[in-house]
Design brief:
The protein is an alpha+beta fold. The protein contains 15 helices and 20 strands.
């Protein structure tokens, strides 16, 4: 290895903090865990080489406390910070602060985080680079009258979206002209409340699209590769429940075409480190919707089909190394599926924090569980409800589904309710088994109580 960090601080918690720790340990890099008082007994704290308490339970006073995180890095002698996903991962100001303190931010350049964090700027940049978009407004809507004009031109239904949005917040559908004003006003109110910014734009609402995303990695030497697509269409309220790699909806030719367009665009942009471009796919056409400038929750399914450690690649690239391989060296083998298991009631989706009295993870060939749970751990009520990711890999999709069915039956989390029963129902659904679903299917499935 040509270059390596002496110590990495992981500015996150839970399973993703453990995931980054594992990559660092295999690379021989010591790690620093940061934690709130609520996470003093968390697994990522127990397994780190060093740990620093950075504040009380509330995320804004701990995991979003940039001063405390930077202080922890400085006093422990860390020379790099990995943000994981969520919290500060796509905060350009934090990335700027890291670099201003002489540390390395393990992620994209702050300018690219800032660009892609503004959905309008991201779409403008991608359009200029030749990436196809969903039909809609050219940028931020100036007012309701412009919204009416654009909607009239592209046709209903339309979607009003927050420019600074994410996670489904600040998104409202108008099925007809009569519903446009309400959608426009509510989207702006939600956007202002969630992001401090009420800028919105408008795009065509597709009735049965797939959500396809492409995983990319780029070094600082102008090399860009992609690691294939993930199908993230199984969503509830714009939150992903299950992901597949590759997508049962597209074939090798579509993957090659999309990959070539995206890698060429990012090379021209000068992008660096990991990124994921998200598209809607309907009637054989891709349409860019946004780019995530970070590691994704669902990155394990890509790792399973490519055999490449994406976190290790992030660290190598941040240390200045070149990729060292080209697109022709990336091989796709088999099929992988990931289930996001959350501490929620499987019917009402109410969060269910509490004491885990017993925990048993499935195993066997082609089975991976990323989790920070253990028997005796108390799931706190302060953070995201994700508690485990079950990932299976097999030579074919049919075999992967069979392996997933078996693994779900083995998975035991006792003491709190989880969404494991919902995943078992989804896997048995004929539409899922046939790969015949879109981004609206899961909502219908849950509402029907199937």
């Amino acid at each position: 290895m040509a270059a390596q960090f002496s110590k990495v601080l992981i500015a996150n918690r839970g399973e993703i903090a453990l995931r980054i720790q594992r990559a660092c340990r295999e690379m021989g890099i010591p790690t620093v865990a940061v934690h709130s008082t609520a996470d003093a007994e968390a697994m990522h704290v127990r397994l780190a080489d060093e740990s620093v308490c950075i504040g009380p339970p509330a995320a804004r006073e701990s995991y979003l406390n940039t001063a405390a995180i930077l202080s922890a890095a400085i006093i422990t002698g860390a020379d790099a910070i990995h943000p994981g996903y969520g919290f500060l991962a796509e905060n350009a100001e934090f990335a700027d602060m890291v670099e201003a303190h002489g540390l390395t931010f393990i992620g994209p350049a702050p300018a690219h985080i800032r660009m892609m964090g503004d959905k309008i700027a991201a779409k403008t940049a991608m359009a200029a680079l030749g990436v196809p978009l969903v039909p809609g407004s050219q940028g931020e809507l100036s007012g309701l009258e412009e919204a009416r004009a654009v909607a009239g031109r592209i046709g209903y239904p339309v979607l009003i979206k927050a420019a600074a949005g994410g996670g489904g917040r600040g998104m409202k559908v108008a099925q007809t002209p009569d519903g446009l004003e309400d959608a426009w006003r509510v989207a702006r109110v939600e956007s202002r409340a969630a992001f401090g910014n009420d800028a919105v734009y408008l795009e065509k609402y597709l009735d049965r699209p797939r959500h396809i995303e492409l995983q990319v990695m780029a070094d600082a030497h102008g090399h860009v590769v992609h690691f294939g697509e993930r199908d993230c269409s199984l969503q509830r309220r714009h939150q992903k429940l299950l992901e597949e790699a590759g997508s049962p909806a597209i074939g090798p030719q579509a993957r090659t075409r999309l990959g070539a367009d995206v890698t060429a665009a990012l090379a021209r942009l000068g992008y660096r480190n990991a990124g994921t471009l998200e598209f809607l796919y309907q009637d054989g056409q891709f349409a860019f919707i946004e780019m995530n400038t970070r590691l994704q929750v669902e990155h394990p399914v890509t790792e399973m089909v490519c055999g490449i450690d994406l976190v290790r690649e992030q660290i190598r690239i941040a240390a200045g190394e070149a990729l060292g391989y080209g697109q022709e060296d990336v091989r796709f083998a088999g099929h992988a599926i990931e289930c996001r298991v959350t501490a929620e009631d499987p019917e009402t989706f109410t969060p269910t924090p509490g004491l885990v009295t017993a925990f048993h993870a499935p195993g066997g060939l082609g089975v991976r569980v990323d989790s920070a749970l253990y028997a005796g751990y108390r799931v706190p009520p302060y953070y995201d409800s994700l508690i485990a990711k079950l990932v299976v890999h097999a030579p074919t999709r049919e075999q992967a589904i069979a392996r997933l069915r078996r693994s779900l039956a083995e998975f035991a989390v006792v003491g709190i309710k989880t969404t494991l029963p919902l995943h078992e129902r989804v896997v048995e659904a004929p539409e899922f088994q046939a790969g015949d679903y879109d981004i609206h299917w899961l909502e219908r499935f849950v509402a029907a109580g199937s």
